[in-house]
Write a structure and sequence with these properties.
- The chain is mainly alpha-helical.
- The protein has one domain: MetI-like (MetI-like fold, Orthogonal Bundle), CATH 1.10.3720.10.
- It is built from eleven helices and no strands.
- It has helices spanning 2-42, 46-61, 64-77, 79-84, 88-91, 94-119, 123-131, 136-151, 153-166, 178-189, 193-221.
- Helix 6 runs antiparallel to helix 9 and helix 10 (178-189) packs antiparallel against helix 11 (193-221).
- The longest helix has 41 residues, at 2-42.
- The termini are far apart.
- The mean pLDDT is 88.
């Protein structure tokens, strides 16, 4: 077991860094995409609302593995078109396809988190902003979103943790993330202990994130706690 760790430990660490890169990019891009989707879900416009519902329903209701296959292998079916529009360079790379798929997936979940947080705010917040003469964009940016993001902190943390664990899907399309490096090591050694080491790394990563998120949540919500004494 120690020999396997010494030999393939650096590969596992490289895979861990790849996992972190995939998750970080997907979460950030997903966060950017989630805002317009969440606003569309709250919109009284039936077309926008219907499109947003269709998007979130598909990505939340189908397996991440199937979505990854659709993007990665589906892109190959449209290779001539993608070459014509100059996008084949992006879709021929498995890493790019994984990040895109994960971003679209987490955007659907983040949009629902944000929508729920905004819907949970008191209606008086909107009325007070309107009484002060603030426009809809300023109201959303300076009044509503800051409060909604505080409310959504815990669900956002859970979504990041789920994305870390779900990132193992990347290994099935030849991306050497942590699980991909683990599978490679096992295929060469047939030593099951390599999966134990990978599980420990996943557990450590999730636990570190959980603790950091708890500290962040306490700091950002300390003004919401009632004063004592």
């Amino acid at each position: 077991m120690i020999d396997v760790l010494l030999r393939y430990g650096p590969r596992l660490l490289d895979g861990l860094l790849t996992t972190l890169e995939i998750v970080a990019l997907a979460i950030v891009v997903g966060a950017v995409l989630s805002l317009p989707v969440a606003l569309a879900r709250l919109s009284p416009n039936r077309v926008l609302n219907g499109a947003a519902i269709s998007y979130t329903t598909f990505f939340r209701g189908t397996p991440l593995l199937a979505q990854t296959f659709l993007v990665y292998y589906g892109a190959g079916s449209f290779r001539p078109f993608l070459q014509d529009v100059g996008l084949w360079w992006f879709f021929r790379d498995a890493f790019n396809c994984v990040v895109l798929t994960f971003a679209l997936n987490t955007a659907a979940y983040q949009a629902e988190i944000l929508r729920g947080a905004i819907s949970g705010l008191a209606k008086g917040q909107f009325e007070a902003a309107k009484a002060l003469g603030l426009g809809p964009v300023v109201t959303m940016r300076k009044v509503i979103l800051p409060q909604a993001l505080i409310v959504a902190l815990r669900p956002y943390g859970n979504e990041i943790i789920l994305m870390i664990k779900g990132s193992a899907v990347a290994s099935v399309v030849t991306v050497f993330d942590l699980m991909g490096a683990t599978r490679l090591a096992f295929s060469r050694t047939f030593d099951f202990s390599i999966y134990i080491y990978a599980a420990v790394l996943y557990l450590a990563l999730v636990e570190i994130l959980r603790r950091v998120w708890n500290v962040l949540e306490r700091r950002l919500t300390r003004h919401l706690k009632p004063a004592t004494g």
